[in-house]
Amino acid sequence: MSRPPAQPDGLSPTEVAERVAAGRVNRPPRDGWRAYADIARRNTLTLYNALVVPAAVGLFLLADYRAAWAVGAMAVANGALGLAHELRAKRHLDRLSVLGEARVRVRRGGTDVPLPSGHVVADDVVLLAAGDTVVADGAVVAADFLELDEALLTGESDPVPKAVGDPVKSGSVCVAGGGAYRAEQVGAAAFAHRVAAAARQYRHAPGPTQATLDRLVRGLTVVAVGLCLGYVLLHLVRGFPAADLVSMVAATITSMVPQGLVLLATLVFVLAATRLGRRGAVVQQLAAVEGLAAVDVICADKTGTLTTGRQTLDRVVAFAEPEAAVRRWLGGFAATSADGLNKSIQALREALAAEAEHIDVRDQLPFQSHNRCSAIVANGTGEPRLFVLGSFEVLAPRLPESGRAAVEAAWRELLPTGLRLLAFADGHAGPEGFQGRLPDIPLRPLAVVALRDELRPRVADVLAGLAAQGIRLKVVSGDHPETVRATVRALGAAFGEQSIVTGDEWANAADRVALAERCDLFGRVSPEQKVALVAALQQAGHRVGMIGDGVNDVLPIKRADFGVAMGAGSQAAKAVAGLVLESNDFAVLPAALAEGRRVVQNVRLAAKLFLLKNVYTVALILVAVGVCGLPFPYLPQQVTLLNALTIGGPAAIILAGRATGRTGGPNFYADVGRFVLTAGAATSAAGLAVYLGSLLTLGHDAETARTLLLTTLILAGVGNAVVATAGDRRLIAWAAFGVGGIVAAAAVPPAAYFFALAPLTGGQWLAVVLAAGASVVVSAAFNLGGGFGGGSRSPAEGGPTHGGPGASGRPPPRG
């Protein structure tokens, strides 16, 4: 095979400007105002507003202006907050799309120019190297043993060789060799843009926790509507005024539907993604934030993840020929190799550039994971000569016995150093060429090549930080097991003296799940075996994260519950990851995981406060109104005060907090449900005792009874906020503010008039304090004793957190 022709010079600046002016640019159509219209419609035309707005209008028409203003203000506030939060989320996602945009190399006017893929224009000559993604449809104009992976487009897993003139489609990935293609179909006309056009439009894509909250809101809305229908029947049977009916409906909707919970949860995910972005960790989608919280096992590739990935030549141990001659051939091999972005080839090119001998390449075998070697056939004066660089295991069967023994001795001597070791050999090339694999011909050992790859700074601290959060790290590498052992030995006692599982041992294991659970170090594993390892850990009930940087890490990253790619890694790895460490700082990872756990924990704590009110509201309505036939427990404007002091303020404090901790268990409903039911039952008992006692025993009027009830609920609510967070000092301060708020509302005449509060005597204040205090004590006995709330516990105390599925949308943890 002859060497391919030189790539064309590409477009001139004038030609580029003409295509930009004509709109022939590789950008998909922007959704623009349509997306903003959808957001506005989604936050105004809601079921909540469909129920609340008519109630507010009815109250105005019935001259109950205080209640009407309160209900109307709640509808406007919910709509405005939802609109503001979702617009902020959209802007954030738009910025992420720019940060995550693939970068390409384009040849223009004979010069190679790095550009974002969105700046490519029609007829641009786009260069390809291993790891690059094809960003526009076109045709190959230069192919240097080019092979593309089209699995994302066709499902075909085998690489496809490409020659000059062959078509390429956007979305395929260069896995071997290099070349260039002419961009013919760009923007909306490109294949990947066409099939994913709907995905690129902005859409509200909630994560698992947000989806759970959406289901809760819908379910509670159904309950509220059912209660309102019951009021209509009571109105027909008992004949109470229509104004009371409308007031009951408005109070029920505003107290039963926790619309603000979803809005606050969305906002906190946006804020978390923004904070991570400032640290150099780009979240690809908001749902990925809570995926961080679920992970309890992380599989990490060694090269480029635990290590810097920048290799340097340490030594060349020569055989058969003088070292100077071997270095010349090795330098020439690296200079002509099609694996220009391979880190080992780059290190050899840099170190041996001055010594390299020119080699006229006749044929070439690019490096691939299943080959574990690369080779070239060089033309010469005599018979063509084959040069091979690869792992000792691949070359050993082709070496003569004496030569194999010498290479193995040098190999074993260097293995404990942790250097990356490659064998270099030559032989006589056969007439058949490579045909996708190394031919089975005798080879002569030339050298053992040792490359140095340093550990990333602070990697030991990172492992300690992960362990403190209950996360187990497994090193999964394609390198020799002894190289892996030497690398992790430098980390101290993090892995102890564990044995290393090889790819062959994994393939022959009878119980892979048990092996995956037991061992943390894996060497000489293929990409397919990495996928199988991730699947085995998932089968054992773990939520698995995968960190990688190369094309060979794409499949395991996709299979994992949560994928992380290094910023300096391949475009293909970054495209499938939920989180990209653009700063290439591995030390960011523990902070990112802690941020995800904090978010999920705080959303759950806020959910407890929102849903607590639903339990005691239903109990009060069913018993007081349904069974005893008493006036409705509170008015719409009183619900506004109750929401502000027991939910709005505490929830905002919780969601803005930065304390980390466990979520309280793997299941949202179990964790939140226990608190809501126990605290709700205690609060219901206290509220019913006060309300029924006031009306039935003491003969108070409805305004006094409602004032006593509202005061009891507010005192119990702020107390339960403290219980839910296990004594968070911020919530203790808010509890004092809440007590002052209800006292001030009752004491200031305009506020007392608006909220329809009656003055209370000293004895009545004592009664409500005792009732509320007793309910909080009962709630604390059930929840703090059982370990729920956990706001002050550390992850190390609480164990691994399973906050919900990762960005891949897998089901909740197994087991």
UniProtKB/TrEMBL annotation:
Topology of the protein relative to the lipid bilayer: Multi-pass membrane protein
Transmembrane segments: 45-63, 69-87, 216-237, 249-272, 614-635, 641-660, 672-693, 705-724, 731-756, 762-784
Subcellular location: Membrane
Protein's UniProt name: Magnesium-translocating P-type ATPase
Pfam families in the record: Cation_ATPase_C, E1-E2_ATPase, Hydrolase
Residue ranges constituting the Cation-transporting P-type ATPase C-terminal domain according to the UniProt record: 669-781
Main location as per UniProt: membrane
Region (Disordered): 792-815
Organism: Limnoglobus roseus
Single GO molecular function: ATP hydrolysis activity
UniProt superkingdom: Bacteria
Keyword set, alphabetical order: ATP-binding, Membrane, Nucleotide-binding, Translocase, Transmembrane, Transmembrane helix
Record domain P-type ATPase A: where: 101-198
Cellular compartments per GO CC: membrane
